[in-house]
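ok so I'm stuck.
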Amino acid sequence: MESETLPQKRGGPQWLANFREYVTDLQMEMRRVTWPTWTQVRATTAVVIVSVFAFAAYFRVVDFLVERGVSQIFMRLTK
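replied:
not stuck anymore, here's the structure
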């Protein structure tokens, strides 16, 4: 029976060749990336922060209203 070995490429293990190919592909992709400007980063960060606070306020109001509604229901049921 033949012993099974890992495929070899140019005298090295296949995982090493795969890793090199991965790094090469990664470098090519990173050259294609369009990075945002500092102004764009600040603007989008501000939008995210404002949105988080707006949603937090909205959910606080909804929570308060639901809490009051449930409390009223329990008050009426326990009388």
